[in-house]
Amino acid sequence: MVQQLHYLKESASQTAGPYVHIGCTPNFSGITGVYETDLGSGSLVNDKTRGERITIRGFVYDGAMTPLKDALIEIWQADSDGFYNSPSETRGKADPNFFGWARQPGDMATGEFAFETIKPGKVPFRDGRLMAPHVNFWIVARGINLGLNTRMYFSDEEEANAADPILSRIEHRVRVPTLIGKREGDTVTFNIYLQGENETIFFDI
Amino acid sequence: MKNILPETTPFFPRDREWHPPAFTPGYKTSVLRSPQRALISLEGTKSEITGPVFGHNIIGEFDNDLIVNYAKPGEMAIGERILVYGRVLDERGVGVPGALVEFWQANAGGRYRHKKETYLAPLDPNFGGFGRTITDENGGYFFKTIKPGPYPWPNGVNDWRPAHIHFSVFGHGFAQRLITQMYFEGDPMIWICPIVKTIPDENAIKGLIAALDMQNTIPHDMRAYKFDIILRGRRSTFFENRKEGN
Protein backbone atom coordinates (compact mmCIF):
# COMPACT_ATOMS: atom_id res chain seq x y z
CA MET A 1 0.00 0.00 0.00
CA VAL A 2 1.05 3.57 -0.59
CA GLN A 3 -0.31 6.72 0.98
CA GLN A 4 -3.74 7.81 -0.18
CA LEU A 5 -4.31 10.99 -2.17
CA HIS A 6 -7.77 11.51 -0.70
CA TYR A 7 -9.11 13.43 -3.65
CA LEU A 8 -12.85 13.59 -3.96
CA LYS A 9 -14.63 13.19 -7.30
CA GLU A 10 -16.59 16.07 -8.80
CA SER A 11 -20.34 15.61 -8.40
CA ALA A 12 -21.64 14.08 -11.61
CA SER A 13 -23.59 16.47 -13.79
CA GLN A 14 -27.27 15.97 -14.55
CA THR A 15 -29.32 17.79 -17.15
CA ALA A 16 -30.80 21.17 -16.21
CA GLY A 17 -34.09 19.72 -17.43
CA PRO A 18 -37.10 21.50 -18.90
CA TYR A 19 -37.82 23.53 -15.77
CA VAL A 20 -34.45 25.19 -15.21
CA HIS A 21 -36.26 28.52 -15.48
CA ILE A 22 -38.08 27.91 -12.22
CA GLY A 23 -34.82 27.88 -10.32
CA CYS A 24 -32.67 30.28 -12.34
CA THR A 25 -35.09 32.75 -13.95
CA PRO A 26 -38.34 32.44 -11.99
CA ASN A 27 -39.70 35.86 -12.98
CA PHE A 28 -39.19 34.97 -16.64
CA SER A 29 -41.10 31.75 -16.04
CA GLY A 30 -43.99 33.72 -14.54
CA ILE A 31 -43.32 33.12 -10.84
CA THR A 32 -43.12 36.59 -9.40
CA GLY A 33 -42.93 37.92 -5.89
CA VAL A 34 -40.10 35.76 -4.55
CA TYR A 35 -37.02 37.29 -6.18
CA GLU A 36 -37.14 40.97 -7.08
CA THR A 37 -35.36 40.29 -10.37
CA ASP A 38 -33.88 37.29 -12.08
CA LEU A 39 -30.19 37.00 -11.34
CA GLY A 40 -28.12 37.97 -14.37
CA SER A 41 -31.08 39.41 -16.29
CA GLY A 42 -31.10 42.88 -17.76
CA SER A 43 -28.28 44.84 -19.29
CA LEU A 44 -24.68 44.40 -18.16
CA VAL A 45 -24.12 48.04 -18.94
CA ASN A 46 -24.87 51.19 -16.97
CA ASP A 47 -24.07 54.84 -17.76
CA LYS A 48 -20.61 54.59 -16.25
CA THR A 49 -19.52 51.31 -17.82
CA ARG A 50 -16.47 51.77 -20.00
CA GLY A 51 -16.41 50.27 -23.47
CA GLU A 52 -18.19 49.84 -26.73
CA ARG A 53 -21.87 48.88 -26.36
CA ILE A 54 -22.93 45.78 -28.23
CA THR A 55 -25.85 43.37 -28.26
CA ILE A 56 -25.17 39.69 -28.76
CA ARG A 57 -28.07 37.79 -30.30
CA GLY A 58 -28.50 34.23 -31.39
CA PHE A 59 -30.21 30.88 -31.28
CA VAL A 60 -29.14 27.45 -30.11
CA TYR A 61 -30.00 24.87 -32.80
CA ASP A 62 -30.37 21.13 -32.34
CA GLY A 63 -29.38 18.47 -34.87
CA ALA A 64 -32.67 18.92 -36.77
CA MET A 65 -31.95 22.67 -37.10
CA THR A 66 -34.76 23.45 -34.70
CA PRO A 67 -34.01 26.24 -32.23
CA LEU A 68 -34.07 25.18 -28.58
CA LYS A 69 -36.81 27.02 -26.71
CA ASP A 70 -35.75 25.87 -23.26
CA ALA A 71 -32.04 26.65 -23.21
CA LEU A 72 -30.34 28.78 -20.58
CA ILE A 73 -27.25 30.65 -21.67
CA GLU A 74 -24.64 32.26 -19.43
CA ILE A 75 -21.83 34.53 -20.51
CA TRP A 76 -18.65 35.53 -18.69
CA GLN A 77 -16.34 38.13 -20.13
CA ALA A 78 -13.61 40.64 -19.40
CA ASP A 79 -14.18 44.38 -19.21
CA SER A 80 -13.07 46.75 -21.97
CA ASP A 81 -9.47 46.66 -20.69
CA GLY A 82 -9.31 42.87 -20.53
CA PHE A 83 -9.79 42.45 -16.78
CA TYR A 84 -12.23 40.02 -15.18
CA ASN A 85 -14.34 41.18 -12.27
CA SER A 86 -13.23 38.28 -10.07
CA PRO A 87 -11.03 37.73 -7.00
CA SER A 88 -8.87 35.43 -9.15
CA GLU A 89 -8.08 38.40 -11.40
CA THR A 90 -4.69 39.45 -10.05
CA ARG A 91 -3.37 41.61 -12.89
CA GLY A 92 -5.43 44.68 -12.13
CA LYS A 93 -8.82 45.90 -11.08
CA ALA A 94 -11.76 45.47 -13.38
CA ASP A 95 -14.24 48.24 -14.18
CA PRO A 96 -16.47 48.40 -11.06
CA ASN A 97 -19.39 49.19 -13.35
CA PHE A 98 -19.09 45.97 -15.26
CA PHE A 99 -19.97 42.67 -13.58
CA GLY A 100 -18.99 40.53 -16.57
CA TRP A 101 -21.49 37.72 -16.00
CA ALA A 102 -25.06 37.44 -17.24
CA ARG A 103 -27.60 34.80 -18.01
CA GLN A 104 -30.57 34.73 -20.32
CA PRO A 105 -33.12 32.12 -21.25
CA GLY A 106 -33.96 31.64 -24.89
CA ASP A 107 -37.33 33.16 -25.75
CA MET A 108 -40.05 30.57 -25.03
CA ALA A 109 -41.72 31.17 -28.41
CA THR A 110 -38.72 31.63 -30.72
CA GLY A 111 -35.68 30.48 -28.76
CA GLU A 112 -33.71 33.67 -29.40
CA PHE A 113 -31.37 34.94 -26.69
CA ALA A 114 -29.89 38.42 -26.36
CA PHE A 115 -27.27 40.05 -24.13
CA GLU A 116 -26.66 43.78 -23.83
CA THR A 117 -23.02 44.14 -22.98
CA ILE A 118 -19.73 45.69 -24.06
CA LYS A 119 -16.99 44.40 -26.28
CA PRO A 120 -14.31 42.91 -24.02
CA GLY A 121 -10.63 43.79 -24.19
CA LYS A 122 -7.83 41.33 -24.80
CA VAL A 123 -6.86 38.85 -22.09
CA PRO A 124 -3.44 37.18 -22.00
CA PHE A 125 -3.03 33.49 -22.70
CA ARG A 126 -0.95 31.42 -20.25
CA ASP A 127 2.29 32.27 -22.05
CA GLY A 128 1.56 36.00 -22.10
CA ARG A 129 0.46 36.26 -25.74
CA LEU A 130 -2.81 38.14 -26.05
CA MET A 131 -5.99 36.28 -26.84
CA ALA A 132 -8.39 38.04 -29.19
CA PRO A 133 -11.47 39.61 -27.54
CA HIS A 134 -13.91 36.86 -26.69
CA VAL A 135 -16.98 36.11 -24.59
CA ASN A 136 -17.19 32.78 -22.74
CA PHE A 137 -20.47 30.89 -23.13
CA TRP A 138 -22.03 28.13 -21.05
CA ILE A 139 -25.16 26.42 -22.38
CA VAL A 140 -27.52 24.13 -20.50
CA ALA A 141 -30.92 22.73 -21.46
CA ARG A 142 -33.09 19.66 -21.34
CA GLY A 143 -31.19 16.91 -23.17
CA ILE A 144 -27.77 18.42 -22.43
CA ASN A 145 -26.21 16.15 -19.80
CA LEU A 146 -23.23 18.36 -18.98
CA GLY A 147 -23.12 22.11 -19.61
CA LEU A 148 -21.40 23.05 -22.88
CA ASN A 149 -18.55 25.56 -22.95
CA THR A 150 -17.68 27.61 -25.99
CA ARG A 151 -16.34 31.06 -26.83
CA MET A 152 -17.54 33.80 -29.11
CA TYR A 153 -14.88 35.82 -30.92
CA PHE A 154 -15.63 38.88 -33.07
CA SER A 155 -15.72 39.13 -36.86
CA ASP A 156 -14.28 42.69 -36.74
CA GLU A 157 -11.08 41.43 -35.08
CA GLU A 158 -9.51 39.58 -37.99
CA GLU A 159 -5.95 40.42 -37.08
CA ALA A 160 -6.33 39.55 -33.40
CA ASN A 161 -8.22 36.38 -34.27
CA ALA A 162 -5.40 35.28 -36.59
CA ALA A 163 -2.92 35.70 -33.74
CA ASP A 164 -5.15 34.13 -31.07
CA PRO A 165 -3.39 31.17 -29.41
CA ILE A 166 -6.60 29.12 -29.19
CA LEU A 167 -8.05 29.83 -32.64
CA SER A 168 -4.71 29.39 -34.34
CA ARG A 169 -4.16 25.88 -33.00
CA ILE A 170 -7.48 24.47 -34.20
CA GLU A 171 -6.57 21.84 -36.76
CA HIS A 172 -9.79 21.87 -38.74
CA ARG A 173 -9.72 25.45 -40.04
CA VAL A 174 -13.14 24.97 -41.60
CA ARG A 175 -14.60 24.85 -38.07
CA VAL A 176 -13.07 28.10 -36.82
CA PRO A 177 -15.91 30.30 -38.13
CA THR A 178 -18.29 28.52 -35.72
CA LEU A 179 -16.58 30.54 -32.96
CA ILE A 180 -16.86 33.93 -34.66
CA GLY A 181 -19.79 36.20 -33.86
CA LYS A 182 -20.79 38.21 -36.90
CA ARG A 183 -20.77 41.90 -36.16
CA GLU A 184 -23.11 44.28 -37.99
CA GLY A 185 -23.26 47.71 -36.40
CA ASP A 186 -23.81 47.25 -32.67
CA THR A 187 -25.23 43.77 -33.05
CA VAL A 188 -23.15 40.61 -32.94
CA THR A 189 -24.94 37.48 -34.12
CA PHE A 190 -23.75 34.23 -32.63
CA ASN A 191 -25.69 31.07 -33.38
CA ILE A 192 -24.75 27.87 -31.62
CA TYR A 193 -25.15 24.55 -33.44
CA LEU A 194 -25.21 21.47 -31.24
CA GLN A 195 -24.78 19.10 -34.19
CA GLY A 196 -24.47 18.97 -37.96
CA GLU A 197 -22.13 20.29 -40.60
CA ASN A 198 -21.64 23.55 -38.73
CA GLU A 199 -21.43 22.03 -35.25
CA THR A 200 -20.00 24.68 -32.94
CA ILE A 201 -16.61 24.02 -31.42
CA PHE A 202 -17.08 23.19 -27.75
CA PHE A 203 -14.22 23.21 -25.31
CA ASP A 204 -13.12 20.91 -22.52
CA ILE A 205 -12.07 23.70 -20.21
CA MET B 1 -15.31 36.07 4.86
CA LYS B 2 -11.75 35.38 5.93
CA ASN B 3 -8.99 37.40 4.40
CA ILE B 4 -7.37 34.72 2.24
CA LEU B 5 -5.47 35.16 -0.98
CA PRO B 6 -7.56 34.31 -4.03
CA GLU B 7 -6.42 31.22 -5.88
CA THR B 8 -5.21 31.70 -9.42
CA THR B 9 -4.22 28.21 -10.53
CA PRO B 10 -6.06 26.17 -13.18
CA PHE B 11 -8.59 23.51 -12.22
CA PHE B 12 -8.10 19.76 -12.30
CA PRO B 13 -9.20 18.36 -15.65
CA ARG B 14 -12.80 17.22 -15.70
CA ASP B 15 -13.13 13.41 -15.66
CA ARG B 16 -15.44 12.89 -18.60
CA GLU B 17 -15.69 9.14 -17.99
CA TRP B 18 -17.36 10.00 -14.69
CA HIS B 19 -19.89 12.49 -16.00
CA PRO B 20 -22.65 11.40 -18.36
CA PRO B 21 -21.61 11.49 -22.01
CA ALA B 22 -23.50 13.88 -24.29
CA PHE B 23 -25.14 11.16 -26.39
CA THR B 24 -27.35 8.93 -24.22
CA PRO B 25 -30.15 7.46 -26.37
CA GLY B 26 -32.00 6.11 -23.31
CA TYR B 27 -32.69 9.78 -22.60
CA LYS B 28 -34.23 10.62 -25.93
CA THR B 29 -33.86 14.39 -25.88
CA SER B 30 -30.09 14.02 -25.79
CA VAL B 31 -30.03 12.42 -29.22
CA LEU B 32 -30.38 15.65 -31.20
CA ARG B 33 -28.78 17.85 -28.57
CA SER B 34 -25.45 16.08 -28.15
CA PRO B 35 -22.37 17.45 -29.90
CA GLN B 36 -20.79 14.69 -31.96
CA ARG B 37 -17.30 16.03 -32.50
CA ALA B 38 -14.47 15.85 -30.02
CA LEU B 39 -14.22 18.71 -27.57
CA ILE B 40 -11.15 20.86 -27.94
CA SER B 41 -9.07 20.86 -24.77
CA LEU B 42 -8.33 24.24 -23.31
CA GLU B 43 -6.13 24.41 -20.27
CA GLY B 44 -7.30 27.10 -17.89
CA THR B 45 -6.59 30.67 -18.97
CA LYS B 46 -7.83 33.69 -17.06
CA SER B 47 -11.12 33.27 -18.91
CA GLU B 48 -11.78 29.91 -17.28
CA ILE B 49 -10.17 30.26 -13.84
CA THR B 50 -11.96 33.49 -12.97
CA GLY B 51 -15.65 33.65 -12.20
CA PRO B 52 -18.33 35.94 -10.82
CA VAL B 53 -18.80 36.38 -7.08
CA PHE B 54 -22.22 37.05 -5.60
CA GLY B 55 -22.75 39.01 -2.43
CA HIS B 56 -25.08 38.08 0.39
CA ASN B 57 -27.06 41.20 -0.51
CA ILE B 58 -28.80 39.31 -3.32
CA ILE B 59 -30.24 36.79 -0.87
CA GLY B 60 -33.63 37.47 0.67
CA GLU B 61 -34.61 36.41 4.17
CA PHE B 62 -36.74 33.46 3.04
CA ASP B 63 -34.81 32.47 -0.06
CA ASN B 64 -33.67 29.27 1.69
CA ASP B 65 -37.10 28.33 3.04
CA LEU B 66 -39.25 26.87 0.27
CA ILE B 67 -41.96 26.01 2.77
CA VAL B 68 -42.81 29.69 3.20
CA ASN B 69 -41.10 31.71 0.45
CA TYR B 70 -44.11 31.49 -1.89
CA ALA B 71 -46.80 30.85 0.71
CA LYS B 72 -49.54 33.26 1.65
CA PRO B 73 -48.98 34.93 5.03
CA GLY B 74 -49.58 32.40 7.77
CA GLU B 75 -49.75 29.44 5.37
CA MET B 76 -47.23 26.79 4.37
CA ALA B 77 -46.49 24.39 1.55
CA ILE B 78 -47.98 20.89 1.87
CA GLY B 79 -45.72 17.86 2.10
CA GLU B 80 -43.07 16.08 4.11
CA ARG B 81 -41.01 18.77 5.79
CA ILE B 82 -37.27 18.31 5.30
CA LEU B 83 -34.03 20.13 5.92
CA VAL B 84 -31.41 19.74 3.19
CA TYR B 85 -27.92 20.63 4.29
CA GLY B 86 -24.32 19.93 3.41
CA ARG B 87 -21.15 21.53 2.17
CA VAL B 88 -19.86 22.66 -1.17
CA LEU B 89 -16.34 21.22 -1.36
CA ASP B 90 -13.81 20.95 -4.09
CA GLU B 91 -11.98 17.78 -5.13
CA ARG B 92 -9.24 18.54 -2.62
CA GLY B 93 -11.82 18.31 0.16
CA VAL B 94 -11.59 22.03 0.81
CA GLY B 95 -14.80 23.90 1.58
CA VAL B 96 -15.85 26.45 -1.03
CA PRO B 97 -17.02 29.59 0.79
CA GLY B 98 -19.22 32.21 -0.84
CA ALA B 99 -20.63 29.78 -3.42
CA LEU B 100 -24.06 30.61 -4.79
CA VAL B 101 -26.30 27.53 -4.69
CA GLU B 102 -29.69 27.62 -6.43
CA PHE B 103 -32.27 24.84 -6.21
CA TRP B 104 -35.64 24.01 -7.73
CA GLN B 105 -38.04 21.10 -7.50
CA ALA B 106 -41.54 19.71 -7.99
CA ASN B 107 -44.10 19.91 -5.21
CA ALA B 108 -45.12 17.04 -2.95
CA GLY B 109 -47.34 15.62 -5.69
CA GLY B 110 -44.61 15.74 -8.34
CA ARG B 111 -45.91 18.86 -10.11
CA TYR B 112 -43.76 21.81 -11.21
CA ARG B 113 -45.00 25.37 -11.31
CA HIS B 114 -44.25 25.89 -15.01
CA LYS B 115 -46.26 26.84 -18.08
CA LYS B 116 -45.12 23.82 -20.03
CA GLU B 117 -45.83 21.31 -17.26
CA THR B 118 -48.92 19.17 -17.93
CA TYR B 119 -48.92 16.49 -15.22
CA LEU B 120 -52.37 16.11 -13.67
CA ALA B 121 -51.16 16.35 -10.06
CA PRO B 122 -52.33 19.69 -8.67
CA LEU B 123 -50.28 22.77 -7.98
CA ASP B 124 -49.86 23.69 -4.34
CA PRO B 125 -50.95 27.34 -4.06
CA ASN B 126 -48.35 27.84 -1.32
CA PHE B 127 -45.37 26.29 -3.07
CA GLY B 128 -43.21 28.01 -5.69
CA GLY B 129 -40.53 25.33 -5.79
CA PHE B 130 -37.25 27.24 -5.79
CA GLY B 131 -34.73 28.98 -3.56
CA ARG B 132 -31.09 29.91 -3.19
CA THR B 133 -28.38 30.47 -0.63
CA ILE B 134 -24.67 31.31 -0.38
CA THR B 135 -22.26 28.99 1.41
CA ASP B 136 -20.66 30.07 4.69
CA GLU B 137 -16.92 30.31 5.33
CA ASN B 138 -16.62 26.52 5.52
CA GLY B 139 -18.69 25.87 2.42
CA GLY B 140 -21.77 24.96 4.45
CA TYR B 141 -25.33 25.57 3.31
CA PHE B 142 -28.87 24.54 4.22
CA PHE B 143 -32.45 25.08 3.20
CA LYS B 144 -35.89 23.97 4.28
CA THR B 145 -38.35 22.48 1.87
CA ILE B 146 -40.88 19.72 1.37
CA LYS B 147 -39.89 16.42 -0.14
CA PRO B 148 -40.73 16.49 -3.86
CA GLY B 149 -42.84 13.72 -5.35
CA PRO B 150 -41.87 11.43 -8.23
CA TYR B 151 -43.62 12.04 -11.54
CA PRO B 152 -44.06 10.49 -14.98
CA TRP B 153 -42.41 12.15 -17.96
CA PRO B 154 -42.57 11.67 -21.70
CA ASN B 155 -39.56 9.58 -22.69
CA GLY B 156 -40.40 5.90 -22.68
CA VAL B 157 -44.10 5.08 -22.33
CA ASN B 158 -43.76 4.53 -18.58
CA ASP B 159 -40.74 6.49 -17.37
CA TRP B 160 -40.79 8.18 -14.00
CA ARG B 161 -38.39 10.58 -12.38
CA PRO B 162 -37.39 9.66 -8.84
CA ALA B 163 -37.95 12.36 -6.24
CA HIS B 164 -35.17 14.88 -6.84
CA ILE B 165 -34.02 18.45 -6.30
CA HIS B 166 -32.12 20.32 -9.01
CA PHE B 167 -28.99 22.22 -7.99
CA SER B 168 -27.09 24.96 -9.82
CA VAL B 169 -23.74 25.81 -8.23
CA PHE B 170 -21.18 28.54 -8.82
CA GLY B 171 -17.68 28.01 -7.45
CA HIS B 172 -14.85 30.49 -7.76
CA GLY B 173 -14.10 29.93 -11.43
CA PHE B 174 -16.37 29.73 -14.48
CA ALA B 175 -14.88 26.28 -15.19
CA GLN B 176 -16.45 24.99 -11.94
CA ARG B 177 -19.97 25.85 -13.04
CA LEU B 178 -22.19 22.83 -12.43
CA ILE B 179 -25.81 21.78 -12.60
CA THR B 180 -26.82 18.49 -11.06
CA GLN B 181 -29.63 16.75 -9.18
CA MET B 182 -29.99 15.39 -5.65
CA TYR B 183 -31.79 12.10 -5.01
CA PHE B 184 -33.06 10.60 -1.76
CA GLU B 185 -31.65 7.61 0.11
CA GLY B 186 -33.68 4.45 -0.25
CA ASP B 187 -35.69 5.49 -3.31
CA PRO B 188 -36.09 2.47 -5.63
CA MET B 189 -36.99 4.82 -8.52
CA ILE B 190 -33.41 6.09 -8.76
CA TRP B 191 -32.06 2.96 -10.41
CA ILE B 192 -34.68 2.77 -13.16
CA CYS B 193 -34.54 6.44 -14.22
CA PRO B 194 -33.21 7.06 -17.76
CA ILE B 195 -31.73 10.42 -16.71
CA VAL B 196 -29.91 8.89 -13.74
CA LYS B 197 -28.74 6.10 -16.04
CA THR B 198 -26.96 8.60 -18.30
CA ILE B 199 -24.25 8.47 -15.60
CA PRO B 200 -22.02 5.52 -16.46
CA ASP B 201 -20.44 4.96 -13.05
CA GLU B 202 -22.50 3.57 -10.17
CA ASN B 203 -20.32 5.37 -7.63
CA ALA B 204 -20.97 8.66 -9.41
CA ILE B 205 -24.71 8.01 -9.01
CA LYS B 206 -24.28 7.20 -5.33
CA GLY B 207 -22.54 10.55 -4.98
CA LEU B 208 -25.83 12.24 -5.89
CA ILE B 209 -27.93 10.43 -3.29
CA ALA B 210 -28.48 12.42 -0.11
CA ALA B 211 -28.29 10.48 3.13
CA LEU B 212 -31.06 10.59 5.72
CA ASP B 213 -29.43 12.11 8.80
CA MET B 214 -31.45 11.46 11.92
CA GLN B 215 -28.85 13.25 14.07
CA ASN B 216 -29.68 16.55 12.43
CA THR B 217 -33.44 16.37 12.36
CA ILE B 218 -35.29 19.23 13.96
CA PRO B 219 -37.33 17.43 16.63
CA HIS B 220 -41.09 17.46 16.05
CA ASP B 221 -40.55 19.48 12.88
CA MET B 222 -38.48 18.03 10.03
CA ARG B 223 -36.07 15.28 9.06
CA ALA B 224 -32.66 16.11 7.60
CA TYR B 225 -30.94 14.98 4.42
CA LYS B 226 -27.23 15.61 3.97
CA PHE B 227 -26.00 16.44 0.49
CA ASP B 228 -22.43 17.49 -0.20
CA ILE B 229 -21.63 18.95 -3.61
CA ILE B 230 -18.15 18.50 -5.00
CA LEU B 231 -16.74 21.03 -7.48
CA ARG B 232 -13.53 20.72 -9.46
CA GLY B 233 -10.33 21.08 -7.48
CA ARG B 234 -7.54 23.50 -8.18
CA ARG B 235 -3.89 22.77 -8.79
CA SER B 236 -1.43 23.73 -6.10
CA THR B 237 0.99 26.57 -6.62
CA PHE B 238 4.31 24.78 -6.15
CA PHE B 239 6.30 26.68 -8.74
CA GLU B 240 5.75 30.00 -10.36
CA ASN B 241 6.93 28.82 -13.74
CA ARG B 242 4.42 30.79 -15.75
CA LYS B 243 5.25 33.85 -17.70
CA GLU B 244 3.81 37.24 -16.89
CA GLY B 245 0.18 37.54 -17.77
CA ASN B 246 -1.38 34.64 -15.92
* Alpha-carbon Rg of chain B, integer: 19 Å
Form type of chain A? globular
The interface involving the most residues is between: A-B, 83 and 94 residues
Major β-sheet annotation of chain B: 9 strands, mixed
- Contiguous runs where pLDDT drops below 50 for at least 5 residues of chain A: none
Mean pLDDT of chain A: 97
Total number of strands of chain A: 13
The CATH C-level name of chain B is Mainly Beta
**Gross geometry of chain B:** globular
Named CATH topology of chain B: Protocatechuate 3,4-Dioxygenase, subunit A
Organism (chain A): Xaviernesmea oryzae
Protein name (chain A): Protocatechuate 3,4-dioxygenase alpha subunit
Keywords (chain A): Dioxygenase, Oxidoreductase
Family (chain A): Belongs to the intradiol ring-cleavage dioxygenase family.
Any key phrases for this structure?
heterodimer; A: 205 residues; mainly beta; Protocatechuate 3,4-Dioxygenase, subunit A; 2 helices; globular; B: 246 residues; 9-stranded mixed β-sheet
Polypeptide structure, described:
The complex is a heterodimer of chains A (205) and B (246). With 205 residues, chain A is mainly β. Chain A is 5% helix and 27% strand. In chain A, strands 4-3-8-9-10-11-1-5 form an eight-stranded mixed sheet, with no helix packed on it. A two-stranded parallel ribbon of chain A has the order 2-12. Chain A has a two-stranded antiparallel ribbon with strand order 6-7. The longest helix of chain A has 6 residues. The model of chain A has no long low-confidence stretch (mean pLDDT 97). Chain B is mostly beta strands and 246 residues long. Chain B has one domain: Aromatic compound dioxygenase (Protocatechuate 3,4-Dioxygenase, subunit A). In chain B, 4% of the residues lie in helices and 24% in strands. Chain B is built from two helices and twelve strands. In chain B, strand 8 and strand 9 form a beta hairpin. The longest helix of chain B has 5 residues. The mean pLDDT of chain B is 94. The chains are: A mainly beta (205), B mainly beta (246). Chains A and B meet through helix 1, strand 6, strand 8, strand 9 and strand 13 of A and strand 1, helix 1, strand 3, strand 9 and helix 2 of B. Strand 13 of chain A pairs parallel with strand 1 of chain B.
